[in-house]
């Protein structure tokens, strides 16, 4: 598994500002390798920390996997549930999800050939400090691996947080810059769908959309396009 380009850019920024940045990148790569040793069918992984209300995705196989994180932050999914309840959330068969439960997440998962997911909260004491999101290409891929993965991921994450500044403030400012979205029609459609789903006005929906993309480390226009496909039911047909 390799970091997505947005993650590489964020890590490059961190390495410029903090000497620990290069070590963090190598450590993330090693962590991904060890996860794949436990779950060979794992096709995507992200590690996020809650920092000032922001969760940063640091590792994923490609942009589409990163979008699965972003869609959850915007419209709900196992990742959000794990943060809220502080417990592991295993979805052994995404295809079997009720069509009303996490609909956009299920549709986009089908489009990316993801068949199961596992989200683990990362704890500091009794507080949820972040999450680890894992995605696999086969059903029930994470069966019997919860304990081993929890030990691996939970043992790695607190040290990484302690050794590096993960706020990436410069990157946050750049992502929030006006004009980030080139396709205003897609933005309007996506925010309209999100507003209806959340029961908020379009301005608030656009803020949710941008924040979700920032947290997952994916382009806002890519998230908008993915939401339109997923909510319209066209995710599995692309």
Automatic annotation (TrEMBL):
Residues 167-228 form the ANTAR domain. The keyword Transcription applies. Keywords: Transcription, Transcription regulation. Pfam families: ANTAR, GAF_2. PROSITE patterns: ANTAR. This is GAF and ANTAR domain-containing protein. The lineage of its organism: Bacteria, Bacillati, Actinomycetota, Actinomycetes, Propionibacteriales.
């Amino acid at each position: 598994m390799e970091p997505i380009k947005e993650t590489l850019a964020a890590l490059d920024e961190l390495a410029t500002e903090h000497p620990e940045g290069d070590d963090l990148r190598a450590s993330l790569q090693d962590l991904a390798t060890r996860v794949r040793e436990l779950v060979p069918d794992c096709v995507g992984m992200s590690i996020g920390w809650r920092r000032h209300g922001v969760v940063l995705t640091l590792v994923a196989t490609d942009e589409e996997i990163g979008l699965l994180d972003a869609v959850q932050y915007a419209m709900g999914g196992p990742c959000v549930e794990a943060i809220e309840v502080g417990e592991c959330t295993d979805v052994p068969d995404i295809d079997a999800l009720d069509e009303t439960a996490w609909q956009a997440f299920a549709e986009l998962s089908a489009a990316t050939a993801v068949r199961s997911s596992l989200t683990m909260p990362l704890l500091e004491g009794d507080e949820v400090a972040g999450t680890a999101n894992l995605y696999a290409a086969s059903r029930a891929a994470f069966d019997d691996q919860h304990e081993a993965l929890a030990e691996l991921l939970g043992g790695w994450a607190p040290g990484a947080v302690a050794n590096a500044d993960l706020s990436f403030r410069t990157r946050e400012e750049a992502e929030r810059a006006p004009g980030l979205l080139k396709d205003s029609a897609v933005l309007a459609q996506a925010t309209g769908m999100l507003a209806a789903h959340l029961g908020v006005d379009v301005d608030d929906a656009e803020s949710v959309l941008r924040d979700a993309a920032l947290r997952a480390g994916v382009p806002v226009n890519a998230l908008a396009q993915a939401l339109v496909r997923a909510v319209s039911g066209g995710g599995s047909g692309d």
